[in-house]
Amino acid sequence: MENIDSVKNIIKNWKINKVILSNPVKKGDGLIFRSTIERVEIKGTDRFRISDFVDKKVLHRIEDCVNDIIIDKMCNNGFKNCDISGNINAVILKNKKDMFTVTGIKKGTDEYISKQHNREKNRIIKEGEKIGWMYELGLMSEDGHIIPNKAKKFKQINRFLEMTDDIEKYIPENAHILDMGCGKSYLTFAMYYYFNIIKRKNVTIKGLDLKKDVVEHCNKLAEKFGFDKLRFYCMDIADTKDDEKIDMMITLHACDTATDYALYHAIRHGCKVIMSVPCCQHELNKTIENDELDIIMKHGILKERFAALLTDAFRAEMLEIFGYKTDVMEFIDMEHTPKNLLIRAIQGNKKSSDENLEKLKALSKKYNVEPSIIKLFES
Fold first, then answer.
1. Domains and CATH numbers, the chain
2. Cβ distance 218 to 299 under 8 Å?
3. What is this structure's pTM?
4. pLDDT at 338 over 80
């Protein structure tokens, strides 16, 4: 067991990158129940960002050193657990008599990525200044900070915009963009903001959803903020007209076969760019069989994941067959959402031979599945 001074002496020369303090002695409303400390780079100088979690809020501040803060929080805030990572990884535990145990000590790494600094620098939409539509949609507070329970959604939106930024050159001025299954329309508003406010491309964006109240609310917001080229419609994806111009189609977490219908209509309309993040996928899992893959099929969770991957593989290949340069990419870290693949396709070459389509159909028979993305083009 160690006293406070001994612990200070043990950690004084450690190069600490991240700290997680948890399990406080006192718990309740208005009290800090968790703290994190991360090394960040600000204007070329290493500093530390302290994040205190209180109720549903996160309070941030920047400090110059970390060692004394660790001790202060374990003593004054009463944290009993402290996980440290850096050139040394270790755990500090405190008992009821305010004595400490430093355990699990092992060599770590001096290297680190200054996440806070890099993310803020690369984000398309930045935190700290109030953006009206984000405030009205419940993503942002009056002072321009992201609401804590919407932080994951904010990261998803920014990541989608970053990936859009990579292919923005393929979207012409006055383009028509369709968001199929827009839901609460966080992404739809963000895309409008990106293309028309930031890039000034004068695009028209149309959002489709089946919930009438959501559609009406989004139209009121679009009107309130003067987004005159943004409109929402209560209609099914299948009801889009064949002669309707669509330059870009987006979907974010369109459930199960809704993604297939969106891709089908995007191809049929000759979209220049398709960006689709699939959601839950159950279709193939119902019938998938293959004796060669018994070691996967006998485990429910492995079978489910394999079926989901196979679903997206069929979708990507179908896009390739119809002449799209297609990438299946990691959309966002798994810690933010398990639905983390994005299918991005850019119109390019002419449709490939029917032979490739027949090979894809043969593959579907091999696994005893009938993917909607194939069936739709047969109807």
1. 4-116 (no CATH), 120-378 (3.40.50.150)
2. no
3. 0.66
4. no
